[in-house]
Amino acid sequence: MRKTPVLYVIVPCYNEEKVLSQTAPLFLEKLDKLTKSGKILPQSRVLFVDDGSSDNTWQIICALAKRDERCIGISQSRNRGHQNAVLAGLMEVKDWCDITISIDCDGQDDIDVMDEMVEKYMAGFEVVYGVRSRRKKDGLFKRASAQFFYRLLRWMGAEVVYNHADYRLISAKVLKELAEFKEVNIYLRGMVPLAGFKSTSVYYERRERVAGKSHYSFSKMLGLALDGITSLTIRPIRLISAAGTAVSLLSFLMIIWVVVQFFMGKTVHGWASTCAIICFVCGIQLICTGVIGEYVGKIYLETKHRPRYIISDRTYEVPEEK
Ligand code: UDP
Ligand code: MG
Predict the structure, then answer these.
(1) Ligand 1 atom at minimal distance to the Cα of residue 49
(2) Measured from the CB, is residue 206 less than 6 Å from ligand 1?
(3) CB of 19 closer than 6 A to ligand 1?
(4) What are the two backbone dihedrals, phi and then psi, of residue 270, each rounded to the nearest 5 degrees?
(5) Do residues 187 and 83 lie in contact, with contact meaning Cβ atoms separated by under 8 Å?
(6) What's the mean per-residue pLDDT of the chain?
(7) Residue 99, Ramachandran bin (φ over 0: left; ψ between -120 and 50: alpha; else beta)
(8) Which of 50, 114, 255, 265 is the most exposed place for a label (fewest CB within 10 A)?
(9) Is 108 in the pocket of ligand 1 (CB under 6 A)?
(10) Above 90 in pLDDT, residue 47?
């Protein structure tokens, strides 16, 4: 049987002033209930990660930290995106906690499944994924595009948990291993399964945001999808090689056919069809160059070894060893 754990709830926040005042008390209430029922130790905390917000989010976090010692906060020096914010929080607390639960601050993820997550940890699991059982509250387009993307990733050979976003429990043991993943192109949903360890899922129904609107525009979602694919798999490049081989083989057969026709005295007519084929192949070549370029760009970014997050403020003193 495991020891009662110290839990850190990691909450990324970007321009969430409308939301935070409503959801922060709910996180604290949950922490309270979990502590009272003896599931977690009283040293447990909620860590808010301000992702370079331009509104009053950081001021709200500071006020929360002043009012209640169980609330702490860090602020990124600028907006770096959801994945970087979650990673910054996880790396910040990895040496102080036994377990972390990352959750969005907008009230969409059901906090009541945290109990079940902690129970699964006590039963021996190191990672517990929060999986959306239904996406009724998401728009039709978001639902369809998300499901298409999960299928695409799976087909490309990447291991991701279907309908799981960034609501998950990770133990300190796994966090220490994740710290060794030095990539800049961060896609936590893919990195956590790559780290391995015993994992399981809990299911919940996704709700609507309590206020404000989603920060994931179509182009941001596309960007995250591209990051996911390029950080997890090189299958697109393999597909290009396979397509290239198939097209070359076909052209070779065509050349033989043309030469045979020539010697039989039947010249090949058809300027239009030749043009169509050239345009088609040119288009394919451009797409292929683009896909390879995408990977080359990612390699370029990785070689710079730039920091993945920069913490500019904390609501607490940095411990000596940090
Ligand atoms: N978020 C962030 N940085 C960003 C965008 C979003 O930290 O650049 C946070 C946001 O505050 C929220 C979570 O990430 O807690 C998920 O964002 P959102 O609710 O907008 O995405 P959706 O739920 O629509 O996918
Ligand atoms: Mg949301």
Answers:
(1) 7
(2) no
(3) no
(4) 110, 75
(5) yes
(6) 87
(7) beta
(8) 265
(9) yes
(10) yes
| Cβ-proximal residues to 212 (8 Å cutoff; 6+ apart), any chain | 15, 16, 18, 19, 106
Q: How far is the CA of 3 from the centre of ligand 2 (A)?
A: 33
The residues facing 168 across adjacent strands are 102, 129
Average pLDDT over residues 22-43: 93
Residues in a beta bridge with 73: 48
* Residue having the nearest C-alpha atom to atom 19 of ligand 1: 214
Distance between Cα 321 and ligand 2 center (Å): 34
Residues lying with their CB under 5 A of ligand 2, a single-atom ion: 104, 106, 108
pLDDT in tens, 112-159: 999 999 999 999 999 999 998 876 666 777 778 888 888 888 887 777
Which ligand 1 atom lies nearest to the CA of residue 209?
A: 19
- Sheet-wide strand order for 71-76: 199-205, 127-134, 164-171, 99-102, 7-13, 45-50, 71-76, 311-314
The pLDDT of residue 160? 80
Highest average pLDDT, of 114-123, 229-238, 265-274, 291-300, comes from 114-123
Task: State the pairing for strand pair 311-314/45-50.
Answer: unpaired
pTM score above 0.85: no
**Is 70 exceeded by the pLDDT of residue 272?**
no
What's the DSSP call for residue 104? Answer: -
pLDDT tens digits for range 153-187: 888 777 788 888 899 999 999 999 999 998 888 88
pLDDT of 103 strictly over 90: yes
Average pLDDT over residues 63-85: 93
- Of the candidates 254, 215, 31, the residue with the CA atom closest to the CA atom of residue 108: 215
pLDDT at 294 over 70: yes
Phi and psi at residue 40, to the nearest 5°: -135, 165
| Rounded Cα–Cα distance for residues 121 and 5 (Å) | 9
Angle subtended by helix axes 57-67 and 17-36, to nearest 10: 30
Specify the residue with its C-alpha closest to ligand 1, atom 24. 214
